[in-house]
Write a structure and sequence with these properties.
DNA primase DNAg catalytic core, N-terminal domain, single chain, DNA_primase_core_N_sf, 4 strands, 99 residues, alpha+beta
Length: 99
């Protein structure tokens, strides 16, 4: 993100920027626990986690899109890594509309 000028802590905090790097599962409750299973199912339903247990936006900077009440209604991801194959994203949006 620094190469793209997106390393200022104030900017990151203000826009609530994130980076998807295949570590989401490590930050969730264990999948063999009820809470972990429920959270993973929710993330799959809203499009942030795939059935193959990978992050939808892997290798992307992630921008939450909020309404005037600061409720996040969409998430936009932009690929940052040049060496990623895009074949796994063909036909899939880089935008996730949340219910």
């Amino acid at each position: 993100m620094a190469k793209r000028g997106l390393d200022d802590p104030e900017l990151i905090n203000h826009f609530k920027l994130g980076y998807a790097n295949r570590t989401l599962g490590l930050h969730l409750p264990q999948k063999n626990r009820k809470a972990g299973k429920q959270l993973r199912e929710l993330l799959k339903r809203i499009g942030l986690y795939r059935k193959n247990r990978r992050e939808h936006f892997n290798g992307s900077i992630v921008f939450p899109v909020a309404d005037e009440n600061e409720v996040i209604s969409e998430v936009y991801g932009r690929k940052l890594l040049d060496n990623l194959s895009l074949s796994h994203t063909l036909g899939q949006p880089f935008m996730a509309d949340l219910p």
